[in-house]
Design brief:
Layout lengths: L4 E5 L7 H11 L1 H8 L2 H21 L7 E8 L10 E7 L5 H11 L2 H17 L7 E9 L8 H15 L4 E7 L3 H9 L3 E10 L2 E11 L2
Parallel strand pairs: 4-5
Antiparallel strand pairs: 1-2, 2-3, 3-4, 5-7, 6-7
Helix pairs in contact: 1-3, 4-5
Length: 216
């Protein structure tokens, strides 16, 4: 059977927001579980944040301008809206760090916003820095039951094609020190490590290979 994939911009009014939030949870499962203590509580918080940030970006007329969310479907399951994977791309600089955090504290429970603040601080010290001419592949996740089918490679290839089409200079992403399989995949697709960043968190060290693909 030929694998036919469909990549759509995520529509919170149409697509399964719980499944999207669940896949975001798996991007950094250990950290979310450490902070929220429970998978379902973490997914619910991620879903609430997702709805808030989409609502805020629509209200400020910036929806999709700085960040694009994509959902991956297989053609035969598209009518059931069965999300197989997610891709989140950042285009240039988003709103200021503290303005963004302020929105979270204003609209979410204090304890929830505080947990997201801790994640944001950790990300600041480990994730790659990028500029206006770059697309940053912020998050990529594949449903656990769909791994090994080439879906991750499809999403990375899609990010590269979007960058080329929209005239960006580089695609930037991060590969966790603990995920050599992902790093090997990125290298096979032409990404090169330009920096390594790490920070000690809760007595454990979190580290990333900051990688780039130069658009030719």
């Amino acid at each position: 059977m030929v694998l036919i994939l469909i990549l759509k911009e995520f529509d919170i009014n149409l697509h399964n927001s719980y499944k999207f939030a669940e896949l975001k949870y798996y991007v950094d499962e250990n950290m979310y579980l450490k902070l929220f203590k429970d998978k379902e509580i973490a997914i619910s918080a991620i879903k609430d944040r997702l709805k808030l940030e989409i609502k805020e970006s629509i209200a400020t007329n910036s929806y999709g301008k700085f960040e694009k969310l994509y959902a991956l479907f297989e053609e035969e399951d598209y009518e059931e809206m069965d999300i197989k994977g997610i891709l989140i791309l950042c285009k240039g600089k988003k709103q200021g760090f503290w303005k963004h955090i302020g929105i979270l504290f204003k609209n979410l429970k204090f304890s929830t916003a505080l947990k997201f603040l801790l994640i944001e601080i950790m990300d600041y010290f480990t994730l790659a820095k990028y500029d206006e001419e770059d697309i940053y592949l912020a998050e990529l996740a594949i449903d656990k039951n769909q791994r090994g089918r080439g879906l991750g490679k499809f999403l990375v290839s899609s990010a590269i094609e979007i960058a080329k089409k929209e005239g960006f200079r580089k695609v930037i992403l991060d590969a966790d020190f603990k995920n050599p399989v992902a790093k090997k995949l990125y290298e096979s697709m032409g990404f090169k490590t330009f920096n390594k960043s790490s920070i000690a968190i809760f007595g454990k060290r979190r580290g990333m290979y900051n990688m780039e693909y130069v658009i030719k």
